[in-house]
Description:
It contains 1 helix and 66 strands. The chain is mainly β.
Amino acid sequence: xxxxxxxxxxxxxxxxxxxxxxxxxxxxxxxxxxxxxxxxxxxxxxxxxxxxxxxxxxxxxxxxxxxxxxxxxxxxxxxxxxxxxxxxxxxxxxxxxxxxxxxxxxxxxxxxxxxxxxxxxxxxxxxxxxxxxxxxxxxxxxxxxxxxxxxxxxxxxxxxxxxxxxxxxxxxxxxxxxxxxxxxxxxxxxxxxxxxxxxxxxxxxxxxxxxxxxxxxxxxxxxxxxxxxxxxxxxxxxxxxxxxxxxxxxxxxxxxxxxxxxxxxxxxxxxxxxxxxxxxxxxxxxxxxxxxxxxxxxxxxxxxxxxxxxxxxxxxxxxxxxxxxxxxxxxxxxxxxxxxxxxxxxxxxxxxxxxxxxxxxxxxxxxxxxxxxxxxxxxxxxxxxxxxxxxxxxxxxxxxxxxxxxxxxxxxxxxxxxxxxxxxxxxxxxxxxxxxxxxxxxxxxxxxxxxxxxxxxxxxxxxxxxxxxxxxxxxxxxxxxxxxxxxxxxxxxxxxxxxxxxxxxxxxxxxxxxxxxxxxxxxxxxxxxxxxxxxxxxxxxxxxxxxxxxxxxxxxxxxxxxxxxxxxxxxxxxxxxxxxxxxxxxxxxxxxxxxxxxxxxxxxxxxxxxxxxxxxxxxxxxxxxxxxxxxxxxxxxxxxxxxxxxxxxxxxxxxxxxxxxxxxxxxxxxxxxxxxxxxxxxxxxxxxxxxxxxxxxxxxxxxxxxxxxxxxxxxxxxxxxxxxxxxxxxxxxxxxxxxxxxxxxxxxxxxxxxxxxxxxxxxxxxxxxxxxxxxxxxxxxxxxxxxxxxxxxxx
Length: 795
């Protein structure tokens, strides 16, 4: 089926995407059992040459000596009020730390570093600034080359910048002026140009601050995900780089040679985790290298010396959990004289890393049609390499890709409708290889067909029809006579699927589509929706978020469990389902909150059915909040006059579950205005997580043949994450009638490692936390027979 074919294709493409450490070596690690971490800065003592890490903690500041970088040691701890956010910079022998947490009152903490490692005296600077009030919190600080400190996101000036002079004899700050009262989340200043991360308007805005009393805006540009978190520029101040603190957002590069006309040059995303919900946090620039901290994806080194083609040249993943959310690497500091790189992981402490800085090998060119010489848009370019890489041609046929590994590599160029081409290419560090490629178009035809009703051959107008194989997918819709046409289809072997509301899906296997081929698809009556097609279900909501959406689900995680499904129900057609809130990111970003969401099927005429039997798959997850989760998923049927419940689900599981063989005639009078109604809600103020999904809907007359698998076994077994670096969370469901159920874990040699008797029909538990890396198999046995086997991969 389609799902299996595309999954194999994807696994083949990503089989080498397992690099967790590239050109970066771990020298030492400092763990903090009593507090989480946030940002990081560094300082080198000009008298002794000893380098120090200044580590932001939720409960203060830690100063770590790097005199022996392979044995980093904490030498001072400055206690502080609890704050998720701290930021720090240095000038001379003083460190200046801001704290941003509601209720904190530390203002700017000033630490004298000159007495390290023996002592680190400090005080809190909390002045009453004229016309502004008492300084208590700020989100960020930057100190320019003239000794001016710029405070961003403070409890005054509407969060706009506050400017201080810290180039004073005692190091005590002196207030200079406020900047424009536009909230800035972060700030970078050089050459009297202030780059403000105006996060809530989604802009990078540049100001002239040469006259601190008369600051002027020079230019502004929106960043890709409209949530501008931080900005850094290269040494020549010709290119700026930005992060948006949003799942799957890129790091973007901009030409800033003309502030009035800022132009985007390129976007970088880590290929190995693209689309998995990782979030870029902070970018810094050293010697035209971008050094980036990514939540759940560690530290990255990207060659920015060719800013139109940003290439990853180093990485070190500090986070062993699943991707997505706000865990893992918070900050990265790359400016120590030794070129040692410091990374703070919120959960796992300080990492002292030694990068091997290497320039990228760039590969660029034009892809054209071999016959017309027209540029080809959307051609993929993949280097056969151990390092993840991916390129794609733009509307002008231009592509830009590369990697850090040098040598001779096979490079494959592909575009649906063209013969793929693989060429051997020599790649060198610091060198641009230019390669233009012509692709030969494949023969294309128009294929006609007819969608008819099984039995009497009457047309099925408006039927959706899809033809697909591993390379191509073509869609069309039947006209009023049931006739359909695939225009410009590429010759080959396809599976053909047709569907229409009021019919079961029809699937034709291994159909040769070529010149003069005609296809007839016969559909049986019934109601089936695998959500391969859009049959216009109706949605409604009182909740501001978590609305029902049709699409490929984007998974989220809560405390090691899958909260929003990361895929649709297994063993159906396609990859889509209806789910509540599909924005990805953190578990609470787009779940159902403070209201209800309702999904209604199109009308169904069941008035002539004797025994209409319903089966479907559903997802329901309910956790978190300030009280015991008590929300529910309600699945109902209405006939236009009354509505009755089919099932009310209150148990939360990270698992697609099934409702099977429900005779609707036993529940309600059958009419020609029947609808399924699926409702879930978060009616509590405690902020529970509520996520739901619906897939594989099937209603058929009992006794009629079905083209779906037998659902009578009622068994499911899933694990998340899989592959896993830590424990697997195993979710299962077995029939209520089972006398005994066991889960048995085997290694790749077939040796039994662990056996658990399952105490309930549904549940979940953690498995394999202490397993070494390798492949394992979990067997689910019901009443002495193996009914399900799951392959587990431990990284």
